């Protein structure tokens, strides 16, 4: 049956309306799809040869999403863990903008070929949780540090330390960061004997230590002993073949190769001055031993017992108009004889306090002898000075008369007095440390024609009294059968001392 035309048109309109309403209902219902994604992009730091992956996590729903069930390979990702929030999507100017979370993963396993990140997201606003999301990045591409060009020796840069102590010297030299050497760089620390605590020559090598800085070994530590006397220590660019064994006047020098110099190769290293001069005493040891001799001379014994056999000592001996300089090498000795009567002696040498000495009589020198003779008219005193001793002055007193006489070595001198009432004569030696001698005269019988009692002629002799001798102490040396003399003194001292010096 056919519907009439108006009814047909009405049915058609109603059906279209129903279809339209159904479409509106579908379009207006909320979408059930919540979605997050992850994408990784690998990169390489060519300065260090390190790989990185930049991960971008997106959220297309207008509510924050929270990360859960996180897994990463080959290592963790800084800033990404369970609980990390991915910002919600937003709409700006009619356009939807997904929310993002960007994190960077530093790859610590150089052997890894792939990096991955997987996780689930949960939206707290409606409790929806999506399926596992996973992203990956390829790590098989080349990643090596860029080749650093090497530098010529003059362009290299270093740093250093340098110290000198009583027990030794140390230094550390280090190649600058990021510098590649075109050739190895030797550096040496060396110590010397020195004649003075300031720079002076000649100097002689004591100890050395050499190290070589390479691209693989970028730092060296050096250490040397220093002598227990004046020294110089140098830290310089160079090897064992560049060490100067003996620094002499006008000879080779390390110059601006010393580290810490203001210019030249040494200026390439930043740090303290790499050189030192100092010390508390000389490397040679002068010694002086003055010895007085019986003849008035002084034997000056000179010796050198230093730490090095390289340094001789110049000694200068002066006394009045006398002056002499002698050179003494290590382990040797020299003797300078200062003439008698020269006066005060001064001995000088570098690094030594002057030695001042005056002659003093030795204790074992032979002493002078005295002989006293007398008769009725005269008293005669004879002073005898032994060989090998200095001249001696005797002061002879008889009664009120005093006579001084100087007797040369090996000689004798006589002094005569007119006989008086005094029965003794006194003999003094002002320059000698001895007691005065009181010599008793011999008995003479002047009232009986000059005869003396007790002589061998039975007392009738008119011979003068015999000589009287005796020791300084005044004891009787001997008695003759016909002894007519009651006193006298004779000096005697054992052999003269002779001083010699043997190296």
What does this structure look like?
The chain folds into 4 domains: 36-138, Immunoglobulin-like (Sandwich); 153-278, Immunoglobulin-like; 286-357, Sandwich (Immunoglobulin-like), CATH 2.60.40; 369-468, Immunoglobulin-like (Sandwich), CATH 2.60.40. Helix content is 5%, strand content 42%. It has one helix at residues 5-28; strands spanning 36-45, 50-59, 65-73, 85-86, 90-92, 95-97, 99-106, 114-123, 128-129, 133-138, 158-165, 168-175, 185-193, 203-213, 219-224, 231-237, 246-247, 269-270, 275-278, 286-292, 298-304, 313-319, 322-328, 333-338, 345-349, 352-357, 369-374, 378-384, 392-398, 401-407, 412-418, 424-428, 437-440, 465-468. The radius of gyration is 59 Å and the shape is rod-shaped.
Element layout with pairings:
Elements: H1 5-28, E1 36-45, E2 50-59, E3 65-73, E4 85-86, E5 90-92, E6 95-97, E7 99-106, E8 114-123, E9 128-129, E10 133-138, E11 158-165, E12 168-175, E13 185-193, E14 203-213, E15 219-224, E16 231-237, E17 246-247, E18 269-270, E19 275-278, E20 286-292, E21 298-304, E22 313-319, E23 322-328, E24 333-338, E25 345-349, E26 352-357, E27 369-374, E28 378-384, E29 392-398, E30 401-407, E31 412-418, E32 424-428, E33 437-440, E34 465-468
Parallel strand pairs: 11-18
Antiparallel strand pairs: 1-2, 2-7, 3-4, 3-8, 5-6, 8-9, 8-10, 11-12, 12-15, 13-14, 13-16, 14-17, 16-19, 20-21, 21-24, 22-23, 22-25, 25-26, 27-28, 27-34, 28-31, 29-30, 29-32, 32-33
């Amino acid at each position: 049956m056919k519907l009439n035309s108006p009814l047909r048109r009405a049915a058609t309109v109603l059906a279209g309306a129903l279809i339209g309403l159904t479409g509106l209902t579908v379009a207006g219902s909320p979408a059930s799809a919540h979605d997050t994604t992850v994408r990784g992009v690998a990169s390489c730091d060519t300065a260090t040869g390190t790989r990185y992956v930049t991960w971008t996590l997106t959220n297309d729903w207008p509510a924050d999403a929270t990360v859960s069930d996180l897994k990463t390979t080959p290592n963790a990702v800084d800033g990404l863990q369970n609980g990390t929030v991915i910002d919600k999507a937003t709409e700006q100017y009619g356009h939807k903008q997904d929310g993002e979370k960007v994190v960077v993963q530093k790859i610590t396993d150089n052997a890894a070929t792939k990096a991955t990140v997987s996780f689930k997201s949960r939206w707290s606003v409606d409790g929806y949780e999506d399926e596992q999301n996973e992203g990956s990045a390829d790590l098989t591409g080349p990643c090596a540090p860029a080749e650093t060009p090497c530098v010529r020796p003059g362009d290299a840069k270093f740093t250093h330390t340098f110290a000198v102590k009583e027990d030794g010297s140390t230094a550390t030299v280090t190649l600058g960061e990021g510098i590649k050497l075109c050739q190895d760089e030797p550096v040496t620390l060396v110590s010397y004997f020195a004649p003075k605590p300031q720079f002076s020559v000649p100097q002689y090598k004591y100890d050395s230590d050499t190290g070589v800085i390479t691209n693989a070994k970028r730092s060296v530590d050096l250490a040397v002993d220093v002598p227990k006397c004046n020294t110089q220590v140098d830290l310089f660019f160079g090897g064992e073949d560049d060490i100067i064994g003996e620094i002499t006047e006008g000879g080779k020098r390390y110059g601006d190769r010393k580290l810490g110099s203001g210019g030249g190769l040494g200026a390439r290293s930043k740090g303290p001055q790499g050189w030192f001069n100092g010390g508390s005493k000389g490397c040679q040891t002068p010694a002086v031993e003055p010895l007085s001799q019986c003849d008035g001379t002084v034997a000056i014994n000179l010796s050198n017992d230093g730490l090095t056999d390289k340094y001789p000592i110049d000694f200068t001996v002066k006394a009045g108009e006398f002056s002499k300089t002698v050179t003494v090498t290590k382990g040797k000795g020299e003797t300078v004889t200062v003439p008698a009567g020269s006066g005060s002696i001064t001995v000088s040498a570098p690094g030594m306090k002057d030695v001042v000495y005056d002659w003093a009589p030795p204790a074992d020198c032979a002493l002078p002898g005295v002989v006293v003779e007398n008769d009725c008219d005269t008293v005669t005193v004879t002073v005898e000075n032994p060989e090998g001793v200095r001249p001696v002055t005797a002061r002879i007193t008889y009664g009120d008369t005093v006579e001084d006489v100087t007797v040369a070595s090996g000689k004798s001198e006589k002094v005569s007095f007119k006989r008086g009432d005094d029965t003794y004569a006194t003999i003094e030696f002002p320059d000698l440390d001895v007691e005065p001698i009181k010599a008793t005269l011999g008995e003479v019988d002047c009232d009986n024609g000059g005869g003396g009692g007790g002589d061998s002629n039975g007392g009738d002799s008119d011979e003068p009294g015999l000589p009287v001798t005796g020791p300084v102490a005044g004891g009787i040396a001997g008695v003759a059968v016909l002894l007519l003399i009651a006193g006298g003194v004779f000096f005697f001292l054992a052999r003269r001392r002779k001083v010699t010096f043997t190296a």
